[in-house]
Write a structure and sequence with these properties.
- It contains seven helices and ten strands.
- It is α/β, with parallel strands linked by helices.
- The chain has one domain: Dihydrofolate Reductase, subunit A.
- Strands 1-9-10-8-2-7-3-4-5-6 form a ten-stranded mixed beta sheet, sandwiched between helices.
- Strand 3, helix 3 and strand 4 form a beta-alpha-beta unit.
- It is globular.
- Bound molecules: NADP nicotinamide-adenine-dinucleotide phosphate.
- The site of NADP nicotinamide-adenine-dinucleotide phosphate (NAP) has 32 residues, from strand 2, strand 3, helix 3 and helix 7.
Length: 248
């Protein structure tokens, strides 16, 4: 993997990076609360391949950086739609990270995705963030499936992401990797809680009418919400980067 742009070292474009340098480039800022959203898209902006999943447009470089970022964060935050579409059950431990990050699932309906209902050995700590609109019956079912301490109610009609992140920080989960999907990412941008976007551009064009990385509503002013590149790396045609998100 080679560096194309590193805002901290402007004189180093083209330099190849070792695994530990890559880990340093993708590290979360020490001592600060930080929310990084992570996505992969095709060059024509689709967040999914023909099968409706992101897995089909991943590349080896993206997989490596995806796994690395899971190793570096405290919690993986993900919308229930992605959990259902991608079949999430747990965050796997890794060689570098035997105790995986907490899996935190966001849902307004309070409907626990199938894959989370069955106990999985070594699943690790997980949280289910939902809101009052889920209703007493669904909340009761979620509590009996996941345990009362794993179900957090924040907000009325949808999850109040600011309050939810406060409650994660109170549990020591300060470095949050949001793995989407587009609806959750848009809600988080609208709530002003996203610090950074990690985006991979896979060298493929998929066409179709699959989702992009955001969903309605429109963001920012006429030109959208400004973002600034902090890091760009490349491997075998895959472009990966970190983009600082302005808080409007
Ligand atoms: N390319 C990539 O990197 C990438 C990454 C992630 C996902 N995807 C793709 O994106 C598609 C899924 O899109 P999506 O927009 O449906 O995904 P999503 O944002 O993960 O899921 C939407 C669901 O998450 C819950 N949710 C989101 N924001 C919420 C909020 N503020 N408050 C309460 N609940 C909230 C709701 O769950 P309930 O329905 O339970 O209320 C909502 O229906 C899939 O095809 C997936 O493969 C691609």
């Amino acid at each position: 993997m080679r560096v194309l742009l590193d805002h901290r070292r402007p004189a180093a474009p083209g330099a190849r990076v070792t695994a530990s340098e890559l880990a340093d480039l993708y590290a979360f800022p020490r001592g600060r609360r930080w929310v990084r959203a992570n996505f992969v898209t095709s060059l024509d902006g689709s967040a999914v391949g023909a099968d409706g999943r992101s897995g089909s447009i991943n590349t080896p470089a993206d997989n490596r950086v995806f796994a690395l970022q899971r190793d570096l964060c405290d919690a993986v935050l993900v919308g229930a739609g992605t959990v259902r579409a991608e079949g999430y059950e747990r965050v796997e431990p890794s060689r570098r990270r035997p105790e995986p990050p907490a899996l935190v699932v966001v849902s307004a309906s309070g409907r626990v995705p199938e894959g989370l209902r069955t106990p999985v050995e070594g699943r690790g700590a997980g949280l289910f963030l939902t809101c009052s609109a889920a209703g007493a019956r669904r909340l009761g079912r979620a509590r009996s499936a996941l345990g009362s301490e794993a179900v957090v109610v924040a907000g009325d009609e949808e999850v109040d992401l600011g309050a939810a992140l406060d409650s994660l920080a109170a549990r020591g989960l300060r470095h949050v990797l949001c793995e989407g999907g587009p609806s959750l990412f848009s809600a988080a941008l609208s709530a002003g809680v996203v610090d950074e976007l990690a985006l991979t551009l896979a060298p493929t064009l998929v066409g179709g009418d699959g989702p992009g990385i955001t969903a309605a509503p429109r963001l920012g002013g006429p030109a959208g919400l400004a973002v600034w590149p902090r890091l760009l790396v490349e491997e075998a045609g895959t472009l990966l980067g970190l983009w600082r998100v302005s808080r409007s």
